[in-house]
Amino acid sequence: MPPTLRIIIESASFFGNSYVIATLASVAMLMYLFASGYIKEAGLFFLAVLGVIYSILLKNIYKIPRPDTYIGDPSKLGDMYRFPSSHVVFYVCFWGFLLFLSFKRGIFGPEKIVWLIRFLCVYHILLIGISRVVVGAHMLQDVIAGYLFGGLYLGILIAISLVLNKK
Q1: Angle between the 3-11 and 111-134 helix axes, to the nearest 10 degrees?
Q2: What does pTM read for this prediction?
């Protein structure tokens, strides 16, 4: 694999590897939604962020160990087990809900900002699965399960949003 392509693919994991960055981005988005008057959306976005806890619960139900080649930190929450990929579940929930919100008129302002947000969402959702396999943290089935479990959680959040907005 060409080095530039590898860097692009591996960089997709960066957001999920840094609890500080993921937390700051989540808090900033919550503050923006609250300040803009999108209280329901903020609450659902908070639930999307909690998708990471959902993924850790799933890992502790299945308890499938990491690949032998993985060099991680077993003391980190959720790092002992590989199934499903927490990065993928979290990204599908976080970036997927943000993508959903980008289609609600007026939430993110100018069209250029909306398209930038959509690009970032799609980039992260598509590349995180490949990234987790390339870095050796997961096998293909972990990633597929992450997309399925994350998609289920995201689908529930979107359904709740649609019901709440009909009222």
Answers
A1: 110
A2: 0.90
pLDDT (tens digit, 0 to 9) for every residue of the chain, 167 residues total? 788 888 888 888 888 878 889 999 999 999 999 999 999 999 999 999 999 999 999 999 999 987 666 666 655 555 678 899 999 999 999 999 999 999 998 899 899 999 999 999 999 999 999 999 988 888 999 999 999 999 999 999 999 999 998 86
In contact, 99 and 116? CB cutoff 8 Å: no
Rounded distance between C-alpha atoms, residue 146 and residue 94, angstroms? 13
> CA nearest 150: which of 76, 81, 77, 86?
86
Interatomic CA distance for residues 134 and 109, integer angstroms: 36
**Of 167, 166, 125, the residue nearest 147 (C-alpha):** 125
